[in-house]
Amino acid sequence: MGSRGHTLALTLLVVHLLLLTCSSHCSLVKVNKGLKVKRGQSAFLQEGDLQFHIPVQKDACKVEVVLNEPITQRVGKLVPQVFDCHYLSDEVKYVHNGCPLLKEDTIKLRLYRFTETETYMEVFTLHVDIVAPECNIIKMGPKSLHVSEFYGLSDAIDGNMVSFHYEKKSNLECTIHLSHQESHLPAHGQLVTGDPERATKRGDEPESFIYLRQQLDNKARALCKSEDCLKGLKLVTFTKVPCEDFLLIGIKYQHIDPPSPDVDYIAIRLDLKDTRSGSIYQSEQAWVPVRIAGAMPNQPPKPSFMSMFILEVDQFILTPLSTATLDAEDEETPKQLLVFNITKHPEEGFITHLSDHTRPVSSFTWLDLNDMLIAYQPPNSSHSQRRNYEVEVEVHDFFFEKSPSITMHTSVRNADTNAPRVSWNMGLSLLEGQSRPITWDQFQIVDNDNLNVVRVITVDGLLHGQLTVEKA
Fold first, then answer.
1. How many beta carbons lie within 10 A of that of residue 168, not counting itself?
2. SS3 of 151, please?
3. 111 — alpha (psi -120 to 50), left (phi > 0) or beta?
4. Residue 282: which of 63, 9, 40 has the closest Cα?
5. SS3 track for 25-90
6. CA 452 to CA 102: how far, in whole Å?
7. Among 5, 88, 278, 436, which is most buried by a count of CB atoms within 10 Å?
8. For 65-85, what is the mean pLDDT?
């Protein structure tokens, strides 16, 4: 009996030690099935889709949607940005924007587990499968929008191109929303109403001159920045319109920006609103295609020949990248909409965003690169010789075409100084009201002479807390 009790005690001890080890080293994610959403619609994250190895009553636990990764959430958005690990079935929702070009999406999430004395953090991704809806409100018709030439004008949008199928009820109000600022669509045209003035024959000029003058008039209208020179056309400036009116008011697509791909899109969102409660009963989004005759299929971006693709870095020093170091160009996509995806990370150190330099990123926008908000954090290890690393990136354009792999060479110079330096600064994560020790894992200082006599002095900050020093 004593031997059996001794064996049981040892077994319990081993299990307890394993649990303690797993709390700090094993993945906190228990189940990650991903999401399946219908194109243009939304889907709630259910309890069985995403679960964690954290009991409800034990520790505080939060999940954060990482926003500064533009290669994620490309055709949709997960809301809210921060939610509890033990979320409700109608709390966390992925909303698809109606894009027909991708069949999957990825969401980068950051999991925090807060105990009384420590913070555990884990980064993981949630996969989203995008499927064609079996029953949807917005349906594309047998006829598509078509522009016969550059700077041309399409026919008016009507029920043959797009239609709306929903149960007509007196308490349901159907509205179409247009938002170029949010969707950047159409990418190479604009929406107008009205009929353009037609070129007429002058005197004894040949018939071919009429067509040439009409082309010049079309180009002048397309490049016009005010309605004064649109000559019969009127810019669509409203952002919402009743569904019936959307198909009747004669909205046309005007091509204004060659070179462009042979397909552009108009992004629309349909909301069915319950007029009794004021709530949205159902919502759906879609991209209405516009065919552009004479245009080429979308071409991938390419590296800029003006960039060096070499980054010189001093040891331990966080160094921003610029477009002189890394750049790309695309004939159809404005530079500010290009996305750089890191396919090969440096062997040591990491690429980061200066909004939070303590965390690595795997993608960034050209806009942030141009604003010098993307940086390389060298490793915190000291070497006597120069070290060289390679970073490989792919550049994605607005319609998801990607460039061949681009290699950037990073060279870390060894420092020749006796001054103390901060070699590692990873910050702290904690809940309001908590305290955390600053350890060697978060903050490191190096000095060639005598590290023991180096003193750290607080000169700024501490707006919401205080630093204390424990006496040895």
1. 6
2. coil
3. beta
4. 40
5. HCCCEEEECCEEEECCCEEECCCCCEEECCCCCCCEEEEEECCCCCCCCCCEEEECCEEECCCCCC
6. 57
7. 436
8. 96
Cβ-Cβ contacts under 8 Å for 343 (sequence gap 6 or more): 392, 393, 394, 405
Token digits for 462?
Answer: 């501490």
The burial of 189, by beta-carbon neighbours within 10 Å (0-12 exposed, 13-18 middle, 19 or more buried), is given as buried
CA dihedral angle for residue 184, residue 77, residue 96, residue 397, rounded to 10 degrees: 40
What is the number of alpha carbons within 13 Å of residue 85 lying toward its C-beta?
24
d(CA 187, CA 109): 30
Phi, psi of 177 (to 5 degrees): -110, 135
Tell me how far apart the alpha carbons of residues 395 and 343 are, in angstroms, rounded to a whole number: 10
Question: 338 with 368: CB under 8 angstroms?
Answer: no
110-162 residue pLDDT tens: 999 988 888 888 999 999 999 999 889 999 999 999 999 898 899 999 999 99
Query: CA 426 to CA 315: how far, in whole Å?
Result: 17
CA separation for the pair 322, 316 (Å, rounded): 19
Would you say 443 and 426 are in contact if contact means Cβ atoms under 8 Å apart? Answer: yes
Distance CA 452, CA 449 (A): 9
The answer to whether 304 and 403 have CB atoms below 8 angstroms apart is no
Phi, psi of 244 (to 5 degrees): -65, -40
Give all strands (DSSP E) within 260-413, no chain letters: 263-274, 280-292, 302-303, 310-314, 319-320, 328-329, 339-344, 350-353, 356-360, 363-365, 374-377, 387-396, 406-413
What average pLDDT score do residues 410-431 get? 75
Q: Which DSSP string do the residues of 333-349 spell out, in sequence order? A: S-GGG-EEEEEE--SSS
Distance of CA 80 to the CA centre of its chain: 15
* Residues 156-214 pLDDT 10s: 999 999 999 998 888 899 999 998 888 999 999 999 998 876 655 565 666 655 556 55
For residue 415, the Cα-to-chain-centroid distance in whole angstroms is 37
Q: Are 340 and 329 in contact (CB under 8 A)?
A: no
For the segment 291-316, the average pLDDT, to the nearest whole number, is 92
Q: Could you give the CA distance from residue 69 to residue 121 in angstroms, rounded to a whole number?
A: 18
Phi-psi region of 184 (alpha: psi -120 to 50; beta: other; left: phi over 0): left
